[in-house]
Design goal:
The complex is a heterodimer.
Chain A (H helix, E strand, L loop, with lengths): L1 E6 L4 H14 L8 E2 L10 E5 L3 H10 L3 E11 L2 H10 L2 H4 L8 E9 L5 H9 L9 E2 L6 E8 L15 E9 L5 H5 L14 H10 L7 E4 L6 H8 L3 E6 L2 H6 L7 H6 L8 E4 L15 E6 L9 E4 L2 H5 L9 H4 L6 E4 L1 H15 E14 L15 E10 L4 E10 L5 H16 L1 H6 L4 H5 L4 H10 L13
Parallel strand pairs in A: 5-6, 5-7, 9-10, 9-12, 10-11, 12-15
Antiparallel strand pairs in A: 1-3, 1-4, 2-3, 4-8, 7-8, 13-14, 15-17, 16-17
Helix pairs in contact in A: 7-8, 13-14
Chain B lengths: L2 H4 L16 E9 L6 H8 L4 H10 L12 H5 L5 H12 E9 L6 E5 L2 E2 L9
Antiparallel strand pairs in B: 1-2, 2-3, 3-4
The chains are: A alpha/beta, B alpha+beta.
Chain lengths: 473, 126
């Protein structure tokens, strides 16, 4: 069945992948078919999607964050006469069950890119007299909600994509996103925050990409304050986290202000385990594998927060040999840590995921990219065990963005994979400085802009994304 | 730290081959109730080392688990939940709040404070 999916006009790259992940979660086997309405651009809020049943459509919409509404389309047209023809040709067998006399209904008018007066809206609703509504009107809590959606032709000037021709849709609402989750979970009222805590909306999107659900185990190897796991827990998953910084994981800011309290605040089950460990030297017993249903995280990019791994700065550079801490100082000794480059960090993450994810399990993580004027091809991390299924860009500044990568484990962890990872690990150790330089975006983000460049480029600078790129933020 | 976590961890000091299971030195053990989720337990059952779980539970004062690993079919069947409930209690409801995990090969102690195990290696162990 085809449904009209109307998205919130924000985080444009994240919209379809969310629906696709949720479709898979709710039982769709095949990849989804999408269609655009006539004359619409890919960034439009309006998309037609093919789903197996109304039940799946409803489940997807209710669990999503970006679906404004999912509708069974009864008709469409460029004017109200065409709309009437279209609705009348929609089979009665599909319409009558929802027009019954013992049900209640409501018709609303929504416009995009313009506003209508109350009278104008009434006029449009009244034009639908040819539809045999038998039930009673209920404006507060109707059984069936109908929507007239109207948009005029417009230029690219109002934050929306340009439309070449006026279009009107009429549909029955099947489901919509529960955006009330956002004010409830907003970081503003979170007990324990850190500088890189993930905002609630994005954390829920990540949890949806990971298909977090009851009975599943979701792991975050860079747990910090637990902001991503909170969203996964809200969707019913069991959670587990690790971090190299013991102050964040064990202490927080006090007995009522720590990772545990972040979960208790919302009445959510606390994580099954929180550990202090180094992802570069993980303490998993050999033979343990395929444990997690999903790994969701936001690794340190090295821009606002850098990653750490075991070994002091001098040891890693080879200036000093690994030293032994005297017996009497060992108990409270905090082992030194050194810089952990993004390249090595992501390599270790992929290796961990290859080993510890169940087959078809998902790895969802953010990866920073520099926004190049030339629009050169960005190369994302790859691994033989994984298939990349979604890439969603979120612009952070004029210099860089981050992309949410969703990977699915399609090949089992083998000895070859283990051996290749071991060799890479040794390579990183022996060439510590060289790898610190590669893929280091901190300097690119913070370098002062060249004044001469600014003048010449501002006119010729072609933004790869169109004017309303603000919607990609 | 729950026994589920303990069942996953081993000592990873350079050169150590027999780092699992870590012996538990318990100073403070508490019991915290957790919602019973049979699907999750069944998924975990396939991943744990049973004998080591029984041993670890005993060191925390819980001896109700059968010595031998139950047959997978017993766990899968929805009929008798008493065994699953025991597994639930041992795996998720027993907490080591304060103590240490000791490497069987080197004797190195990994401290457990406020329920969080510290698995970080010292400079000469990596």
């Amino acid at each position: 069945m085809w449904f009209l999916c109307v998205f919130y006009h924000r985080l444009l790259d994240f919209r379809k992948p969310e629906v696709e992940a949720l479709a898979e979660l709710f039982g769709e086997d095949e990849s989804l078919q999408w269609r655009l309405p006539e004359h619409h651009h890919n960034d439009t809020p309006f998309h037609f999607v093919h789903l197996s049943s109304e039940e799946i459509a409803q489940n997807i919409a209710k669990r999503s964050i970006l679906v404004k509404g999912m509708y069974e389309l009864w008709g469409e047209g460029t004017c109200y006469e065409e709309l009437r023809d279209s609705i009348e040709s929609f089979p009665d067998s599909r319409k009558l069950p929802f027009l019954a006399s013992d049900s209640t209904f409501r018709i609303s008018v929504e416009t995009f890119g313009k506003a209508l007066t109350f009278d104008e809206q009434r006029e449009r609703i009244n034009s639908l007299t040819y539809i045999p509504f038998e039930g009673k009107v209920n404006l507060k809590n109707a059984d069936h909600n109908f929507f007239i959606m109207e948009m005029d032709e417009s230029e690219e000037n109002n934050g929306l994509q340009p439309i070449l021709q006026r279009r009107i849709f009429f549909g029955r609402e099947v489901g919509f996103a529960d955006r009330k989750l956002l004010p409830t979970f907003q970081l503003k009222s979170r007990t324990y925050l850190g500088p890189t805590a993930m905002d609630a909306e994005m954390a829920f999107l990540m949890a949806n990409q990971a298909k977090a659900a009851s009975g599943r185990l979701v792991y975050d190897p860079f747990v910090g304050t637990g902001s991503i796991l909170v969203s996964a827990a809200r969707f019913g998953a069991m959670t587990m986290g690790a971090d190299i910084d013991i102050r964040v994981v064990r202490d927080g800011r006090g007995p009522d202000c720590n990772v545990w309290s972040n979960f208790k605040q919302y009445g959510l089950p606390t994580p099954v385990a929180l550990l202090r460990m180094d992802n570069n030297l993980p303490p998993w017993r050999s033979g343990l594998n395929e444990l997690f249903d999903a790994i969701v995280c936001d690794p340190p990019y090295g821009v606002r927060a850098g990653g750490r791994k075991s070994g002091g700065r001098k040891i890693l550079r080879g200036t000093v040999d690994p030293y032994t801490v005297p017996e009497d100082k060992r108990t409270d000794h905090i082992p030194s840590t050194g810089a952990y480059s993004l390249v090595e960090c992501v390599h270790d993450l992929l290796h961990l995921a290859a080993r510890m994810l169940v087959m078809k399990g998902r790895l969802v993580f953010f990866f920073p990219v520099l926004r190049d004027e030339n629009g050169s091809e960005v190369k994302f991390p790859e691994h033989p065990c994984f298939k990349l299924v979604a890439v969603s860009e979120q612009i952070l500044s004029s210099r860089y963005s981050r992309v949410l990568l969703t990977m699915v484990k399609v090949e089992p962890y083998s000895e070859e994979v283990e051996e290749a990872a071991r060799l890479m690990h040794v390579e990183f150790r022996e060439n510590h400085l060289k790898w610190l330089e590669k893929g280091n975006i901190h300097s690119s983000v913070f370098k002062p802009s060249d004044p001469s460049q600014v003048h010449t480029d501002s006119k010729s600078f072609k933004d790869p994304k169109p004017k309303y790129r603000g919607k990609y933020v | 730290m729950r026994l589920m976590t303990h069942n996953m961890l081993s000592c990873n000091i350079k050169g150590v081959t027999n780092g699992f299971p870590l012996k538990i030195e318990a100073e403070k053990v508490i019991e915290k109730e957790v919602d019973f989720n049979p699907d999750f337990l069944r998924h975990m059952f396939a991943k744990i080392e049973w004998k080591d779980l029984v041993e670890a539970a005993r060191s925390l004062g819980y001896a109700e688990l059968p010595e031998d690993s139950p047959d997978a079919t017993v766990i899968e069947s929805a009929a008798d939940e008493s065994l699953l409930k025991k597994l639930h209690h041992a795996l998720l409801e027993l907490h080591l709040e304060e103590g240490a995990l000791v490497c069987p090969e080197t004797g190195r102690k990994f401290p457990v404070n406020k329920g969080i195990p510290n698995m970080l290696l010292h400079e000469d162990e990596a």
